[in-house]
């Protein structure tokens, strides 16, 4: 009996040694039990199970029984089925959507990707590292190796202006940069933020190559939110209760088709917009409503004070990974990554308007590795709206 108990403990120990972002991780038995509890919440049985061509498994879960509704702040939450006021702006000719045919769940259900324990461990570890973004922003020497694991090339609105924002939007092309290490990531994103320090709220959306999060080197549609600067909250996609999914065929974390250098370009349009009646923050992808982050998650975060557009890479060591297409903005259309039709919503329930050059600031952490082009409205005779190119090859910087 004693031997059996010892072998059982040994088996638990073996199971809890996981390969993490910075090598081999070990987690306690208590942490393992917590992960098992989370998995039971996330992997709810569905009315149908679908396996995609990529090998991903989705459960089609009743929209009113999805895992996010188990969040303690969402008790008795009534699912909002549609956005009350979709974006109001001039219609423009769109490229074909990169989203493809979708998952194909029955109406009244939403696709929830089946989560494994390794997914939770990677995501939680990376979420903690992501909080350094806020620490780095306050660091007077942001390029010191010990203080900066995130590098950026982005434009942003100045939080000191005290402007109020209710939405953000942009088109950008999708690439699949090749990373030099499995502990790196390369991301192109937009995000809204508000609050200060421990009350910092952030909703981000974009595309990313992020093996620490997804366990592969493909390009994924990703989202991230936190209500306290990452101190106790911070969640990618649907890996914790929070985001309310509403689309039966679309979901977060899906794999995206990508552009070819000086070839066919895959483009995506992303919008985050606050519903003026419910105060929920909605995600719209290529004109399709994916769902929303309920207001209850964010406390007093009723309006954004900062907006960001651009690229961001994560690397605990050099050489640094590529950003965007891996080419500098001077290469222009077909060669570099771009963001175009940059818009923001300055009035609750109002129209989206073009951002103006005098209203933004610029940030480039490593100008030897990454660059940020000028904001211009002259590309393609002005039909692209406010546009900038960005990115670079990374390397030893």
Report what the structure shows:
With 397 residues, this protein is an alpha+beta fold. The protein has one domain. It is 13% helix and 30% strand. The protein is built from 5 helices and 21 strands. Strands 7, 12, 13, 14, 15, 17, 18, 20 and 21 form a 9-stranded antiparallel beta sheet that branches. A 7-stranded antiparallel beta sheet has the order 11-10-9-8-16-6-19. It has a 3-stranded antiparallel beta sheet with strand order 3-4-5, with no helix packed on it. Strand 8 and strand 9 form a beta hairpin. The protein is globular, with a radius of gyration of 21 Å. It starts with a helix and ends in a 6-residue tail after the last strand. The N terminus is likely disordered. InterPro entries: Glutamic_endopeptidase (IPR053168), Neprosin (IPR004314), Neprosin_propep (IPR025521). Keywords: Signal.
Short synopsis of the structure:
With 397 residues, the protein is of the alpha+beta class. The chain has one domain. The chain contains 5 helices and 21 strands.
Task: Output the keywords.
nine-stranded antiparallel β-sheet; seven-stranded antiparallel β-sheet; signal; 21 strands; alpha+beta; 397 residues; disordered N terminus; Neprosin_propep; 13% helix; Glutamic_endopeptidase
Largest sheet: 9 strands, antiparallel
By DSSP, the count of extended strands is 21
Terminus-to-terminus distance: 58 Å
> Which structural class is indicated by helix and strand composition?
alpha+beta
Low-confidence stretches: 1-24, 134-147
Mean of residue pLDDT values: 84
User: Using only CA atoms, what is the Rg?
Assistant: 21 Å
Percent helix: 10-25%
Q: How many individual domains?
A: 1
What's the helix count? Answer: 5
The gross shape turns out to be globular
Order of helices and strands: HEEHEEEHHEEEEHEEEEEEEEEEEE
* Beta-strand content estimate: 25-35%
Pfam family, one: Neprosin_AP
Keywords: Signal
Protein name: Neprosin PEP catalytic domain-containing protein
Domain Neprosin PEP catalytic: 143-397
């Amino acid at each position: 009996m004693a031997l059996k108990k010892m072998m059982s403990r040994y088996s638990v120990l073996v199971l809890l040694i996981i390969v993490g972002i910075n090598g081999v991780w070990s987690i306690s038995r208590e942490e393992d039990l917590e992960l098992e509890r989370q998995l039971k919440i996330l992997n709810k049985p569905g009315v149908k199970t679908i396996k995609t061509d990529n090998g991903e498994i989705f459960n089609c879960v009743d929209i009113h029984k999805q895992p996010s509704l188990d969040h303690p702040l969402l008790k008795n939450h009534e699912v909002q089925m549609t956005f009350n006021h979709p974006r109001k702006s001039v219609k423009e000719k769109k490229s074909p959507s990169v989203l493809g045919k979708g998952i194909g769940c029955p109406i009244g259900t939403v696709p929830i990707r089946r989560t494994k324990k390794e997914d939770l461990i990677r995501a939680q570890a990376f979420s903690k590292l992501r909080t350094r973004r806020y620490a780095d922003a306050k660091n007077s020497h942001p390029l010191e190796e010990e203080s900066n694991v995130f590098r950026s090339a982005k434009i942003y609105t100045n939080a000191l202006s005290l402007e109020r924002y209710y939405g953000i939007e942009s088109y950008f092309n999708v690439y699949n940069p090749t990373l030099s290490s499995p502990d790196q990531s390369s991301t192109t994103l937009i995000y809204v933020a508000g609050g200060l320090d421990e009350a910092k709220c952030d909703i981000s959306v974009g595309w990313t190559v992020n093996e620490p999060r997804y366990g592969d080197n493909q390009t994924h549609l990703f989202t991230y939110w936190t209500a306290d600067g990452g101190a106790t909250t911070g969640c990618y996609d649907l890996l914790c209760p929070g985001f309310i999914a509403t689309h039966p065929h679309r979901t977060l974390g899906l794999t995206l088709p990508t552009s070819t250098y000086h070839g066919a370009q895959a483009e995506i349009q992303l919008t985050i917009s606050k519903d003026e009646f419910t105060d929920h923050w909605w995600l719209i992808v290529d004109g399709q409503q994916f769902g929303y982050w309920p207001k209850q998650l964010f406390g007093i975060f009723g309006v954004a004070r900062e907006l960001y557009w651009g690229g961001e890479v994560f690397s605990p060591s050099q050489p640094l990974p590529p950003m965007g297409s891996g080419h500098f903005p001077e290469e222009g259309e077909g060669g570099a990554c771009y963001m175009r039709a940059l818009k923001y919503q300055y009035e609750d329930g109002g129209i989206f308007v073009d951002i103006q050059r005098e209203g933004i600031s610029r940030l480039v952490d490593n100008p030897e590795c990454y660059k940020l082009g000028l904001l211009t409205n002259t590309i393609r005779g002005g039909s692209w709206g406010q546009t900038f190119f960005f990115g670079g090859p990374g390397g030893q910087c």
